[in-house]
């Protein structure tokens, strides 16, 4: 108990955290461990509770129920200034009355460090802006302010660095560049980064581990590849990229595979990739996993026949097809433009096929629209 | 008739400039002329001729040193008290009032609805023998049975503090309200406790409001004579009261003009030094 929380190090553990505001539950019985040294992303639409979770870790909000540990130290009710945690705020929140140098030195000075020059210079070099030390924040561009906000946090070498939608205010090109830089800086300094975002591409580019949040709960947690290739819920399948979800029935077993009936056509998929609880299931296939072939052409793997090309969009790197299936569903297919020509036209009768191992199975009682709606609030943020 | 485009801004400036010229520049010149006039030999009361009697200034200042000193002392005290009252008030409205923000702002301005004079007379009642302040303080043995509050410097400073409070509160509110609360959160995040965050972030960021508020309070307070006339006594006369009586009672225009000019220059110097020191040009 006598241990000063400021010296705490180790994994961050959230245990059964709930945060309510009146009747509204922002975070609902959340348990989560973030390993030391990882780049962790909390991904979800706005209002999913990810920012509230971050603010509780920072100490800006207190959980209604539950505890937060850093290593062995309980920091649930520790004041923000007593936590070894720093935040890169969404709008940067730089101090407008201080120079860039003094902004970065702020945390060091508060901890009683007199000789700050060396450390501040070092971190200014890390973010490649040493020439701006004497400027004021308003004289900097958005991208530069973003880096200074990062420098101001990492100069303290916190046990945990929190990033609250840090790239939200930047334009697309700068955002891409900063994603790569942030990842590089994280490896360089070796701190634990916890990154909150609603941008799935941003999370996938940077994080080692992503927790997808929805309505105050974690839907699924794993590496970007795990989440993308084998989503466990319709929300994750739709929120991370696009998915084709086709209703089916489990018809039997074939060794390690399941035989699934999709509107009368039999396909096969690995048992361990099915998250169904009974016989009913949605078979999920990512659009780029499909192959289109003309009727009569022999194909390998699972095949669904009777498709008709409804729409063709040539977008350079790939061609996107909308294929109408006999049971009335339209599926998305992305084909690489290996040969440079779109080989199918609107109205062509086709089969679609795919490698069985790419199939994932969702519970048959899922809402297949979950995670597809565009939140109007989110558009405003953009 | 058409004008080249470059002339348009100057044409737009013309009405304002004409107004200021007629009602500011000309009176100032007139005031400067009057301040160096001397009485006509054997003339009537109030008859003066233009000389260049700069000795008027020395005489006016020497005769009224005390009132000058008192003006700046009272104005400084009123400014300090107003700041002490207004800062927490503006802070609470800006950060803690939530949906009551607008109502509270109206309440701050509400005392301005009745006239300045009426409000000051009301203070005379409040601080008088029949008010609740004096009997209250007496029953608590804070002041003796013989002590009164009217006609004292306390009453004058209290009246000035009250009358200029909105001038202090509104600019303070405006600059506190502009502070992004996330910068204060950021200070907490960067190891500053509540007091340090206030001292290092909130106060510096509210400096434009502090400077504007203190100027808007100090300048009119230094030249004020209503509070001293209504709430004070001959012993609490301020320079405004002297100027008033020189003009309207003694009809000594040159001395009144010289005093006005001296006051103006003194305020100008003080304000310039103050703004330099506060360094507001550094602030965003």
Structure summary, number of beta strands of chain B: 2
**Pair with the most extensive interface?**
A-B, 27 and 22 residues
For the biggest β-sheet of chain A, the strand order reads 6-7-8-3-9-10
3D shape of chain A: elongated
What strand line-up does the widest sheet of chain B have? 1-2
Query: What low-confidence regions of chain B span 5 or more consecutive residues with pLDDT below 50?
Result: none
Supply the number of helical segments of chain A.
Answer: 9
| N-to-C order of helices and strands of chain A | EEEHEEEHHHEHEHEEHHEEEEEEEEEEH
Mean pLDDT rating of chain A: 91
CATH architecture of chain B: Orthogonal Bundle
Strand content of chain B: under 5%
* SS summary, helix count of chain B: 12
Q: Any idea how many domains of chain B? A: 1
Helical content of chain A, roughly? 10-25%
Number of strands of chain A: 20
* Main CATH class of the largest domain in chain A: Alpha Beta
Q: How much strand of chain A?
A: 25-35%
Number of domains of chain A: 2
Tell me the series of helices and strands of chain B, N- to C-terminal: HEEHHHHHHHHHHH
| Sheet/helix structural class of chain A | alpha+beta
Task: Give the structure's gist in a few sentences.
Chain A is of the alpha+beta class.
Report on this model:
The complex is a heterodimer of chains A (382) and B (284). In chain A, a hairpin with a 2-residue loop joins strand 11 (244-254) and strand 12 (257-262). Chain A has 9 helices and 20 strands. Mean pLDDT of chain A is 91; it is low at 375-382. Chain A is 23% helix and 34% strand. By secondary structure, chain A is of the alpha+beta class. Chain A has a 6-stranded mixed beta sheet, sandwiched between helices. Chain A has helices spanning 50-58, 100-110, 117-126, 142-154, 172-189, 200-206, 224-229, 234-239, 376-381; strands at residues 12-21, 24-34, 39-43, 65-70, 73-74, 85-88, 160-164, 192-197, 209-214, 217-222, 244-254, 257-262, 265-270, 280-285, 291-294, 302-314, 318-324, 330-336, 349-354, 360-363. Chain A has 2 domains: 5-229, Rossmann fold (3-Layer(aba) Sandwich); 234-363, OB fold (Dihydrolipoamide Acetyltransferase, E2P) (Beta Barrel). With 284 residues, chain B is mainly α. Chain B has a single domain (55-282), classed as MetI-like (MetI-like fold), CATH 1.10.3720. Chain B has a two-stranded antiparallel sheet. In chain B, helix 2 crosses helix 12 and helix 3 packs parallel to helix 7 (153-177). The interface between A and B is medium-sized, with 27 and 22 residues.
């Amino acid at each position: 108990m006598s241990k000063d929380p400021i010296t705490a190090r180790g994994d961050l553990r959230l245990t059964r955290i709930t945060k309510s505001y009146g009747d509204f539950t922002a975070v609902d019985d959340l348990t989560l461990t973030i390993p030391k040294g990882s780049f962790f992303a909390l991904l979800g639409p706005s209002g999913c509770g990810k920012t509230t979770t971050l603010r509780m870790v920072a100490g800006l909000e207190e959980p209604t129920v539950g505890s937060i540990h850093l290593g062995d130290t309980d920091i649930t009710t520790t004041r923000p200034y007593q936590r070894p945690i720093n935040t890169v705020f969404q709008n940067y929140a730089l101090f407008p009355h201080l120079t860039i140098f003094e902004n970065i030195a702020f945390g060091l000075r508060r901890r009683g460090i007199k000789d700050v020059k060396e450390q501040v210079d070092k971190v200014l070099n890390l973010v490649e802006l040493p020439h701006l030390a004497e400027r004021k924040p308003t004289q900097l561009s958005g991208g530069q302010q973003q880096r200074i906000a990062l420098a101001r946090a990492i100069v303290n070498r916190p046990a945990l660095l929190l990033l609250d939608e840090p790239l939200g205010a930047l334009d697309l090109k700068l955002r891409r560049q900063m994603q790569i830089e942030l990842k590089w800086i994280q490896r360089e300094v070796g701190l634990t980064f916890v990154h909150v975002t609603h941008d799935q591409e941003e999370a996938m580019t940077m994080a080692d581990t992503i927790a997808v949040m929805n309505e105050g709960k974690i839907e699924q947690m794993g590496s970007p590849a795990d989440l993308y290739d084998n989503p466990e819920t319709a929300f994750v399948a739709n929120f991370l990229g696009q998915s084709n979800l086709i209703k089916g029935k489990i018809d039997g077993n074939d060794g390690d595979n399941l035989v699934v009936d999709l509107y009368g056509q039999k396909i096969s998929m690995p048992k361990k990739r099915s998250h169904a609880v009974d016989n009913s299931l949605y078979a999920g296939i990512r659009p780029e996993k499909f192959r289109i072939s003309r009727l009569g052409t022999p194909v390998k793997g699972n095949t669904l026949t009777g498709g008709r090309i409804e729409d063709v969009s040539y977008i350079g790197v790939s061609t996107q097809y909308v294929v109408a299936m006999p049971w009335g569903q339209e599926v998305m297919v992305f084909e690489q433009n290996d040969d440079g020509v779109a080989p199918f036209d609107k109205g062509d009768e086709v089969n679609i096929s795919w490698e069985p191992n790419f199939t994932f199975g969702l519970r048959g009682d899922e809402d297949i629209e979950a995670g597809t709606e565009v939140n109007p609030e989110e558009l405003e943020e953009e | 008739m058409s004008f080249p485009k470059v002339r348009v801004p100057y044409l737009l400036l013309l009405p304002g400039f004409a107004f200021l010229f007629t009602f500011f520049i000309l009176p100032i010149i007139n005031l400067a002329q009057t301040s160096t006039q001397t009485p006509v030999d054997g003339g009537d009361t109030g008859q003066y001729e233009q000389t260049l009697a700069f000795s008027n200034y020395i005489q006016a200042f020497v005769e009224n040193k005390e009132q000058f000193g008192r003006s700046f002392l009272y104005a400084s005290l009123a400014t300090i008290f107003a700041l002490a009252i207004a800062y927490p008030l503006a802070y609470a409205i800006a950060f803690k009032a939530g949906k009551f923000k607008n109502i509270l702002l109206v309440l701050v301005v509400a005392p301005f609805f009745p006239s300045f004079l009426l409000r000051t007379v009301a203070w005379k009642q409040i601080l008088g023998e029949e008010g609740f302040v004096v009997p209250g303080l007496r029953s608590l043995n804070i002041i003796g049975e013989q002590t009164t509050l009217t006609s004292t410097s306390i009453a004058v400073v209290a009246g000035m503090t009250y009358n200029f409070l909105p001038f202090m509160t509104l600019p303070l509110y405006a600059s506190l309200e502009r502070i992004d609360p996330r910068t204060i959160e950021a200070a907490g995040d960067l190891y500053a406790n509540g007091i340090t965050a206030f001292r290092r972030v909130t106060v510096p960021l509210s400096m434009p409001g502090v400077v504007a508020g203190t100027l808007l309070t100090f300048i009119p307070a230094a030249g004020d004579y209503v509070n001293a006339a209504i709430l004070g006594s001959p012993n609490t006369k301020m320079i405004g009261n002297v100027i008033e009586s020189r003009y309207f009672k003694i009809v000594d225009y040159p001395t009144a003009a010289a005093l006005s000019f001296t006051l103006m220059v003194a305020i100008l110097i003080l304000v310039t030094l103050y703004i330099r020191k506060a360094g507001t040009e550094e602030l965003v």
